[in-house]
Write a structure and sequence with these properties.
The chain is of the alpha+beta class. It contains 5 helices and 3 strands, in the order αβααααββ.
Length: 116
Amino acid sequence: MPTKIDRDTQILSNNIVSDKTLRTDHLLCSFYNYIKRYNPDEAKRIYSNPEDAKTLDEAAVSSSELVSGWVEYVHQTELLQELEDVLNDMSPSGYTFGNHPGDGACFRYWKNDEGE
């Protein structure tokens, strides 16, 4: 298991998590795959919930098509927020996770204005 410093270095060298669309299925797939790559224990915890696992499987399979009907929209939104919270918790020191103000589809790690 890499140390936090090693993981932070890896995250900053590949800090764009998603930059294609704002479609929920695409974001679920991109966010989860990024977490799985850099924080596999957290990915396993998220995936252990059967409803989340179904949602993430469907997103992975159907990321190029609009997914509808496989889970309630409310659950998709809650899961997306949970994944975003995990990505924010993974932020290296001095960085925060979020989207670009000029390009809402570009999610990555950004240097804090405060530098903290």
